[in-house]
Specification:
With 162 residues, this protein is of the alpha+beta class. It has 2 domains: 30 residues, no CATH class; 114 residues, OB fold (Dihydrolipoamide Acetyltransferase, E2P) (Beta Barrel), CATH 2.40.50. 27% of the residues lie in helices and 29% in strands. It is built from 4 helices and 7 strands, in the order ααββββαββαβ. The longest helix has 17 residues.
Length: 162
């Protein structure tokens, strides 16, 4: 690739474009596998910034010496009720789950494990360990404040309705 880039000025435009097309076709600049399939095992030390709801937090993760990144983290394996639910009982349960997570992460320090991109992008999904080392998702399930997460599958558009 370096040789190709350093000789671009010597080659006629047609040869340069052909070479560029070949590089793009072979995918020499592309990663070996899609980013969505990557998993970072961890542990990655992090500090709690904010609790959004019972299954989503914002953390400042230390990714390298002197480098931190702030990101949204969805707890792996659980689904808590939504704070904006139209159902008042769901909203009350959602608030209870949020208060529980705030209390569990009161020390502010936590670790992230099995980190991967969320299917919607813009956040990651990870196992979160509280300051005492306990799995936050397991604690939410044990307290009855969340349900195990089961991805929903959309019915095919041609499936007849009831």
């Amino acid at each position: 690739m370096f040789l190709f880039c350093s000789l671009w000025f010597v080659l006629p435009p047609r040869a340069w474009l052909s070479g560029l097309a070949l590089v793009l076709l072979l995918g020499l600049g592309a990663p070996a596998r899609p980013a969505a399939a990557e998993t970072l095992a961890g542990p990655v030390p992090a500090e709690l910034v904010r609790v959004l709801d019972g299954d989503t937090i914002i953390v400042r993760a230390r990714i390298w010496l002197g480098q931190e990144i702030e990101t949204r983290v969805r707890l792996w394996g659980v689904n808590a009720p939504e704070l904006r639910s139209p159902d008042p009982q769901d909203r009350a349960r959602a608030q209870a789950a949020r208060v529980f997570v705030v209390a569990e992460l009161a020390g502010g320090r936590l670790t992230l494990h099995a980190i991967r991109r969320d299917k919607y992008g813009g956040r990651v999904v990870a196992r979160v360990r509280a300051p005492d080392g306990s799995d936050l998702a397991a604690r939410l399930l044990a307290a009855g404040l969340a349900e195990p997460y089961a991805p929903r599958r959309r019915a095919h558009l041609s499936t007849p309705g009831p």
